């Protein structure tokens, strides 16, 4: 306990120490060790996160410009990502090279929930065909989030300091976010601190009605230490996060506590033979679900203790003027205990503690090699091979006990008598090529075979009673789920190509078109094993995870065009994207759950002097392809208009914006079931979809010092 307290307050001590120093003007040089990179069919954002207008406490809006990426509705700072119809655990998310796993049966503490936008300098989304060096145990793609590179003194300066304060207010849900960062450095050592607070009430829809259980409160503190020498860099990152509460409109329960501590140590060095990059990381999480407001009431505690740890070692070796070899070794371990304490006096939830996952373990060991080749000014290729060995296991479990839990009692006995240990060996292959046909046209194309082993919850959630099953599931559909220890790994075969057309100078216009197709063997879908009724006879499904074959296909388009460039009106451009995806079960052609309908985005942007202005348009088609097995709701199409303006001073920036300008009422296509409002209104009628946020006036201010 004393150690935890010291870690919790260490960031504040560092911040005080830095803030009392003289704030000289920073003249720093960023020291990073960059590996050569070849990415095909990977949409990467070239604009640093810090250069964007301040508009959100959530990584969703930071990543929203990526056409390949969508999000399931979840908590206010815990959205679950989707890439081309493939969601959540099927996506590898690396935060400064570290991998974090959701330690919750509802994925309330998803990997992105640990990341505040103020702590991210660069964000990249690699969709579909990704290099084996940036994949593994995932089939959809990779999200890379990186902190700012440490700053060091340069040009003979003895000591430099820098800092930034930023704040955001959003009127709709009375949201307030603030961030403070500060650092001090000489030419070889750097010390920094970042603290963020994000808090909001439940938002209102376009009709002025409250969308219950969408409030949140999150505090994050990070200390960074860096040391550099000749051709080498060491970075140590310590993070503490506290989430006192977070509502989930489409879940039966809410988050009432989530505390985590993390350490991330990275060391990189350049040798005569090439580049070496190593990393070790650890994170501990204590998580609790329950009820904290009158927007969703009840009595049932659920607790989880999770731990992630791992390392990575990778090297890049130029073999000659054409070929570069990249090799690597990774390991990751997830430990999980998931238990539900008895409720005193309850006949259903007692007298014992319900043990859902006991000493769960998921160990992964991986090796890979890939060769990047530049054959000519026109042709380049990347070919890679990777093996991941994943071992999962869990201990014996128990139900609440008692006569009212006969179904779960029998299920626990059967689970304990079975084999609770599995090992999967997965081979990934990637082959990609780029052909530059001319100074105005190029094409990227390739094939990938990717694998993902089942998660601990998919394999080892064992309860068969209705109440126990409804406590499992990260899909926001108010259904119930049970696992299957015999689940096989998913194997995805993907082909795609990107045609890129642009002007010769790549300054006036660009058009990208990307068709893709993915066939997933042993896709982890669901099989309906029963139904149950909520109040007023509303039917929901009891589902078991099951291997099925599935296919995903679609097309994405992206464009940008310079419209004007003159002294009177500054510079103007339009940027847009279009995305369409289908997901189907191969056996019967049924639609899969939460597939985003056709959508189009366009941004008209003007920059003139210190001003930047933009009009943002989003059109979403009606969602009629729904998963009937899960009772998924259809949603109507809608159009949203957002406005924003900003003014940049030398060391400060002010942003003003209006989202959903016309206060449009609409339903979120990936929002799930609006359980919180249905329940608060007496459980009358069917459970409808979740409504989106109405109009909000947003104000953001950032100051550098």
From TrEMBL:
Belongs to the TonB-dependent receptor family. InterPro entries: Beta-barrel_TonB, Beta-barrel_TonB_sf, Plug_dom, Plug_dom_sf, TonB-dep_rcpt-like, TonB_rcpt_CS. A motif (TonB C-terminal box) lies at residues 688-705. It comes from Methylovorus glucosotrophus (strain SIP3-4). GO terms for molecular function: siderophore uptake transmembrane transporter activity. Keywords: Cell outer membrane, Membrane, Receptor, Signal, TonB box, Transmembrane, Transmembrane beta strand, Transport. Pfam families: Plug, TonB_dep_Rec_b-barrel. This is TonB-dependent receptor. Residues 214-661 form the TonB-dependent receptor-like beta-barrel domain. It is found in: Cell outer membrane. Its main location: membrane. It is a multi-pass membrane protein. GO terms for cellular component: cell outer membrane. GO terms for biological process: siderophore transmembrane transport.
């Amino acid at each position: 306990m004393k150690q935890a307290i010291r870690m919790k307050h260490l960031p504040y001590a560092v911040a005080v120490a830095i803030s009392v120093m003289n704030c000289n003007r920073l003249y720093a040089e960023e020291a990073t060790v960059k590996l050569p990179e070849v990415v095909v069919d990977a949409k990467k954002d070239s604009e640093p996160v810090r250069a964007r207008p301040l508009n959100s406490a959530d990584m969703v809006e930071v990543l929203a410009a990526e056409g390949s990426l969508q999000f399931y509705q979840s908590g206010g700072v815990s959205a679950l990502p989707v890439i081309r119809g493939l969601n959540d655990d099927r996506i590898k998310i690396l935060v400064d090279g570290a991998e974090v796993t959701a330690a919750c049966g509802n994925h309330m503490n998803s990997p992105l929930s640990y990341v505040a936008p103020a702590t991210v300098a660069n964000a990249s989304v690699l969709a579909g065909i990704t290099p084996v060096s940036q994949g593994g145990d995932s089939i959809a793609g990779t999200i890379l989030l990186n902190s700012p590179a440490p700053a060091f003194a340069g040009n003979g300066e003895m000591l430099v300091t820098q800092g930034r304060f930023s704040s955001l207010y959003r009127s709709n849900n009375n949201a307030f976010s603030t961030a403070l960062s500060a650092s001090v450095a000489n030419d070889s050592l750097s010390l920094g601190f970042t603290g963020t607070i994000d808090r909001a009430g439940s938002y209102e829809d376009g009709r002025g009605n409250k969308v219950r259980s969408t409030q949140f409160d999150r505090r994050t503190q990070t200390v960074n230490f860096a040391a550099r020498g000749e051709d080498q860099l060491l970075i140590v990152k310590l993070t503490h996060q506290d989430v006192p509460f977070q509502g989930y409109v489409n879940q039966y329960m809410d988050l009432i506590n989530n505390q985590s501590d993390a350490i991330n140590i990275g060391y990189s060095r350049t040798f005569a033979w090439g580049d070496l990059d190593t990393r070790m990381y650890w994170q501990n999480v204590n998580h609790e679900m329950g009820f904290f407001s009158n927007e969703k009431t009840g009595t049932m505690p659920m607790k989880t203790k999770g731990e992630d740890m791992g390392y990575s070692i990778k090297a890049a070796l130029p073999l000659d003027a054409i070929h570069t070899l990249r090799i690597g070794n990774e390991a990751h371990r997830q430990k999980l205990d998931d238990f539900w304490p008895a409720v005193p006096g309850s006949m259903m939830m007692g007298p014992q503690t319900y043990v859902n996952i006991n000493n769960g373990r998921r160990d992964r060991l991986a090796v890979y090699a890939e060769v990047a080749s530049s054959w000519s000014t026109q042709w380049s290729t990347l070919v890679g091979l990777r093996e991941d060995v994943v071992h999962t296991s869990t201990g014996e479990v128990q139900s609440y006990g008692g006569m009212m839990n006969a179904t779960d009692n029998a299920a626990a006995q059967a689970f304990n008598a079975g084999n609770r240990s599995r090992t999967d060996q997965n081979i990934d292959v990637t082959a990609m090529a780029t052909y530059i046909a001319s100074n105005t046209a190029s094409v990227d194309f390739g094939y990938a075979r990717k694998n993902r082993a089942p998660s601990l919850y998919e394999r080892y959630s064992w309860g068969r009673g209705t109440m126990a099953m409804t406590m499992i599931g990260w899909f926001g559909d108010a259904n119930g789920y049970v696992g299957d220890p015999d689940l096989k790994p998913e194997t995805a075969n993907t082909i795609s190509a990107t045609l890129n057309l642009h002007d010769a100078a790549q300054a006036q216009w660009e058009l990208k078109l990307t068709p893709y197709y993915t066939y997933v063997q042993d896709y982890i879908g669901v099989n309906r094993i029963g139904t149950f009724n909520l109040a007023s006879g509303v039917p929901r499904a009891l589902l078991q995870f099951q291997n099925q074959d599935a296919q995903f296909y679609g097309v994405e388009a992206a464009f940008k065009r310079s419209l004007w460039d003159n002294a009177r009106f500054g510079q103007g451009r339009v940027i847009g994207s279009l995305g369409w995806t289908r997901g189907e079960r191969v056996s019967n052609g049924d639609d899969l759950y939460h597939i985003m309908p056709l959508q189009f985005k366009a941004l008209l942007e003007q920059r003139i002097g210190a001003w930047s202005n933009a009009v943002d348009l989003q059109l979403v088609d009606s969602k009629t392809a729904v998963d009937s097995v899960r009772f998924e709701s259809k949603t109507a199409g809608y159009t949203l208009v957002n406005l924003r303006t900003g003014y940049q001073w030398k060391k400060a920036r002010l942003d003003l914006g209006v989202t959903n300008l016309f206060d449009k009422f609409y339903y979120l296509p990936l929002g799930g079931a609006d359980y919180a409002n249905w329940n608060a209104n007496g459980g009358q009628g069917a459970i409808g979809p979740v409504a989106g946020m109405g109009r909000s006036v947003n104000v953001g201010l950032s100051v550098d010092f």
